[in-house]
Amino acid sequence: MKILAALMLLGGAAAAQQPADEFQASTGVLRITPIRHASLLVQAGGQNVYIDPAQGNFDGLPKADLILITDIHFDHFVPDIIAKLRKPGTVIAGPEAVAQKLTGIEILRNGESKTFGAWGVEAVAAYNLKRGPAPGQFYHEKGRGNGYVLTWGGKRIYVAGDTEAIPEMRALRNIDIAFVPMNLPYTMTPEEAAGAVKAFKPKVVYPYHYRGTDVNVFAKALEGSGIEVRLRNWY
Question: Does residue 231 sit within a domain?
C-alpha cells in the first residue's frame, strides 16, 4: 500500500511509455524508450536493459536481460516491478544499498565497471553537493547511489540518477546520449544541469526525472552549444 500510494503521488502508475528513439551503433540499432520519471528501457542486439523500472506501465513490455538500479528511493527501486520483469537469467545490478534490500544483486560501487554480455557498465557517482533535508544532511549521500554509463556497439549512454552537477559528471567524456535530472529540492535546477552538460558535451541529452520543472529553461540554456536537446513527456 505504501508503494502504491507513492506511485500515485508521482502521477499514477498506469501512464503509457513514450515511443522509442533509435540510434545507429556500429553493430546495429539501439532503441531507447522513456517510460516514466526515471524509468527507461534500452534495447540492442536482442537484449532488454531496464534502468530504474519503478514508475509507469510495464504491461506488454519485454522481460529484462539486465536491470540497473541507481538508488533505494521508491521512484527508482520497486521490488514488485523488478519481479514482474525478471526471468531466468536476468541480471540485476546496483549499489550496495540496493543489495541490502534485495537478494541476488550484482554490486557495483562508484567507479567500478563490469561487463554483462555485450553491455559494458560503468558506475558513476551520484550525490548531492549542497541540498538536503537539514543542515549537514544530504538527500543523496556520496557513495550510496550510482549513475551509469552503458556501452554497446561503440555508443555510450549516461544515465545520471539522483545527483547534482558533481565533478564526476563534469569529467565524463565521449558520451553520445545522456539522461540528466532536474527537480528541486532533490537534484538541481535546469540552469545547473545545463552547466554540467556543457562541461561533458554529450551529443544528445534528455532531461528526465524533472517533475514540476520547466525543461524549456534547460533547452534554452543549451542553445548554440551544439548539443541536441530532446524533450519527451515523461509524465
Answer: no
Q: Does residue 234 form part of some domain?
A: no
Please report whether residue 165 resides in a domain.
yes
Q: Which three cell numbers stand for residue 209?
A: 526525472
**Predicted TM-score (pTM) of this structure:** 0.93
Contact of 182 with 231, CB cutoff 8 Å:
no
The range of the structural domain enclosing residue 196 comes to 18-223
Q: Give domain status of residue 155, yes or no.
A: yes
- Name residues of the chain where pLDDT drops below 50: 1-16
Taking alpha carbons only, the member of 181, 229, 235, 183 closest to residue 21 is 229
All cell numbers assigned to 217:
529553461
**Full strand arrangement of the beta sheet holding 113-116:** 113-116, 119-126, 145-152, 155-159, 177-181, 204-208, 228-229
Residue recorded with cell 554490486: 107
CATH number for 106? 3.60.15.10
- For the chain, the domain total comes to 1
pLDDT single digits (tens) 89-146 = 999 999 999 999 999 999 999 999 999 999 999 999 999 999 999 999 999 999 999 9
